[in-house]
């Protein structure tokens, strides 16, 4: 681990932000500018495409891809972000595995609150299946809100009677709209990005008055994960959402699901975005790539 690297990332994330409430447009522009600083690896190519009724970004290795598709859901509190803001993550997964990734531009709140994003993600998965892809060659992956969507889309697919994907990879997933995890308080001030209060506005935009006490909003607390595919949950100790991952992992184990809970010390929310700048980010992505290569392409039981 590099203390210097971690301190530099922490300082970047703690830079002063405009005081007072910001408009959705300002939030989206600020996040786009931050993520534009991330390093996108060489050896990939991107193409605009569509999946279901939504635009998407196809990310492929320059050479011939291996058989397998990563259906990726970007982060951004269900309000901001795009396939482009997640390109350092999708690009690194593609470069490290040789699989292709399809990163979905799902609808965002407040214009389209819950459950619009889940419907879009489920439609995208259904489109892959209807296009002839074997579920044993598909993995769901995502970061933050998108990590939550990787889990809730799997719940929705199971409830719809669809075959489930081969694996799930979630980077710092947001899995509890009730915000009852102990880390919401124990990591206050340690997390350089979020506080309970800072999460409230976007959370309210996504909920739009809905009760957060339901599995598709708070799977870490309420979801039955029976029958789920193997999962890899990665998080850092310096994030208020840490217990979203720890509690989902416990529920997965209780349901007989293969789950790896991969916690890295002294790193922030979605630290994997800092690949090329933070050694721990590259190492975590290597572990995620190994997990994907171990599970994609196996025959469905």
What distinguishing features does this structure have?
alpha/beta; Rossmann fold; eight-stranded mixed sheet; 10 helices
> What is the radius of gyration computed over CA atoms, rounded to a whole number of angstroms?
18 Å
Low-confidence stretches: none
Major pleated sheet: 8 strands, mixed
- Tell me the helix content: 25-40%
Mean pLDDT: 95
CATH class equals Alpha Beta
Identify the strand order in the major beta sheet: 1-2-4-3-5-6-7-8
- SS element count, helices: 10
Number of domains: 1
What's the CATH topology label? Answer: Rossmann fold
In CATH, the architecture is 3-Layer(aba) Sandwich
Shape assignment: globular
E-strand count: 8
* Termini separation: 39 Å
Q: Note the run of SSEs as H and E.
A: HHEEEHEHEHEHHHEHEH
Tell me the structural class.
alpha/beta
CATH superfamily: Alpha/Beta hydrolase fold, catalytic domain
Task: Explain the overall architecture.
By secondary structure, the chain is of the alpha/beta class. It is built from 10 helices and 8 strands. An 8-stranded mixed beta sheet has the order 1-2-4-3-5-6-7-8, sandwiched between helices. α5 links the parallel β5 and β6. α3 crosses α10 and α4 packs across α5. The mean pLDDT is 95.
In short:
With 301 residues, the chain is of the alpha/beta class. It has helices at residues 3-13, 24-35, 87-97, 116-130, 145-159, 183-186, 196-207, 219-222, 242-254, 279-295; strands spanning 44-51, 54-61, 69-73, 100-104, 138-143, 167-171, 231-236, 259-264. Helix 3 (87-97) links the parallel strand 3 and strand 4.
